[in-house]
Amino acid sequence: MSEVRIAGTGLTPFGNVPERTGRDLFAQASAAAFEDSGVPRDDVEAVFYGNFMGELAEHQGHQGPLMAEAAGVRAPATRYESACASSGAAIRDAVVRIRNGETDVALVGGAERMTNLGTAGATEALAIAADDLWEVRAGMTFPGAYALMAQAYFSEYGGGREELAHVAVKNHENALTNEKAQYQSAITVEDVLEAPQVSSPLGLYDSCPISDGAAAIVLTSETYAEEHDLDAPVAITGSGQGGDRMALHDREYLARSPAAREAGEEAYADAGIDATDVDLAEVHDCFTIAEVLALEALDIEPIGEGISAARDGRTTADGETPINLSGGLKAKGHPVGATGASQIAEVATLLSGEHPNSEYVAEATTGVAHNAGGTVASATVHVLEEVGRP
Amino acid sequence: MSEVRIAGTGLTPFGNVPERTGRDLFAQASAAAFEDSGVPRDDVEAVFYGNFMGELAEHQGHQGPLMAEAAGVRAPATRYESACASSGAAIRDAVVRIRNGETDVALVGGAERMTNLGTAGATEALAIAADDLWEVRAGMTFPGAYALMAQAYFSEYGGGREELAHVAVKNHENALTNEKAQYQSAITVEDVLEAPQVSSPLGLYDSCPISDGAAAIVLTSETYAEEHDLDAPVAITGSGQGGDRMALHDREYLARSPAAREAGEEAYADAGIDATDVDLAEVHDCFTIAEVLALEALDIEPIGEGISAARDGRTTADGETPINLSGGLKAKGHPVGATGASQIAEVATLLSGEHPNSEYVAEATTGVAHNAGGTVASATVHVLEEVGRP
Prior knowledge:
Two copies of one chain form a homodimer.
Chain A: E1 4-11, H1 22-37, E2 46-50, H2 54-58, H3 63-70, E3 77-81, H4 86-99, E4 105-112, H5 118-126, H6 142-157, H7 161-175, H8 189-194, E5 197-199, E6 202-203, E7 213-221, H9 222-227, E8 234-243, H10 258-271, E9 280-282, H11 288-297, H12 328-332, H13 336-352, E10 366-373, E11 378-386
Parallel strand pairs in A: 2-3, 2-4, 9-10
Antiparallel strand pairs in A: 1-7, 1-8, 4-7, 5-6, 8-11, 10-11
Helix pairs in contact in A: 4-13, 7-11
């Protein structure tokens, strides 16, 4: 089984650029990834691309070959769609393909154009990640669904809006050094608590923004990285995926994410680590409560204790296990098809020392990326380790 | 590397059932596949699901977990979208996952609900498999694109509407015994030539119908099949995928399908066969000209000679290499997300002797399934071999 190396990563700025197409964004991200990697485009043997709402936002399906073309690559390409975990799913299959020896060099990533739909239009488009017959037609949106999850959490384990506010404050703080973040502005707990309510108990600053953006990664086999003397010190050593019932009303608990737990357990076992080995993580904080649920699903925090992690400084930049040093979905932005790949890119650069926030994790060797779809009906978890040059 | 066995297959009837949802269709197909396989649902470790136009036809994305649920399976699930090759792409990754030893039992398949959109609506939805900016906005539809390919073929290699008509006649003839086919009616060359024109030179009977339907397959590792004494004599021994530029105007030739050739060469090499070993094939005949191009891309016919294959009886049921014994997309129907999986199911039952048309291929041991997306910007090819009970 070949080890999978991260040869290069590229991100566009995340933000509000409604005039840019998905292919334009992905061309930019992939060009940056190729430049960072030193791998020639002609060596790419397969493209694994994540996108969620291209049909609705750009009247464009079949984006695999389109995005291979945008990246200047001539290779078979597939589009993976797993809602907000689309590029996480793409990476999962890329890892398997490289390990299996079928592919030596893969381009993976994703893009999403969203802001051209407007906030209401994008919220409606996002809703197709929920069950149309049983949830969406009853009026459910994702802010509403995560609000239900937060209410259930508060009622089962305690905590409240103030603890959640610390998650948002922390992630905005982390984004201050991230030039590609949608928001590079500090906020206070008061700002979060006083912001307009979106769906009780969640307010505007508990919610990630609507974003345009793309992320790309060049993955290679260890053999290829060795033969080409690549500067690729970080490997993907663990990969896991979990699934759950689609609709919230079919879940046993609203305040837990078994799909993320399953994905995490599989990824940890695959990498031969456990949660205590995790030095840092990028988790899917589409809403503040989602970060709390992710920490517990990944065993970084015990059940019922994730709520206080940001407030008590366990997950801040100088804490025990810094979470979302990139700014997270909350402050970095969430172009949904790009998010999973962007998380892997952030963890890789944090570990290799090339990230502006690497100083907080100078001793770190092991990082985790957690990507979730819908109300975590889908989840992927990847473990990255700094293993040194091949 | 573990061999991949086909443990069971299930198809819904293909046709015009606008009131049925995709999940309803996939529940039926997967139930049939589980019954055919004897594999308990609880043993499934991953679901690979193909769907193309769920966002437009059902306002439903994130269909992976939804379809796992419809199938009664609790396992991680991903939706693969590669236009009309969506379930071909799903199977490609399932094969890799099983070979890699990560998964012993996979549910693969796809579904599509289309007729609820009406013929014009479905044609418009299908168009998102082409390049929206450069083709669709200029008025291109798939009948138009394949008509261009047919014109280019006639002009380069000769032949005409009459030769194409024989493809349609043959496929309708083959479907007469297929109870699940959308059309079980014989047609004549005159019928085809006199049918209303869709896009010159293609007429109504050169075109596959708009269809609803689902297909499901239970795949297992050879080890699992052996340990559970499954009646699974057919293995997927070769898998390949190809890609091309998205838009027709970027192609070197309109009358060739290099992505299908690439996929075929990869699949043949993977299985250790060549084209002369192919006893039968299901190819992606969305239009009659598409069958001709597929035969040539798969080296079943030399370049420029595929046009006469049906007319001269080389690809009829009693011919040298029977093509589309199921009736093909033309007569069996083409619920796009289901098509790739349905082709594998047909080849498997043809080889195992359980297909109503198996009598024509009693000595056959090797079959091929060819699934194409768009104007063959994507293609997957799988080789199936009857290798005996595990």
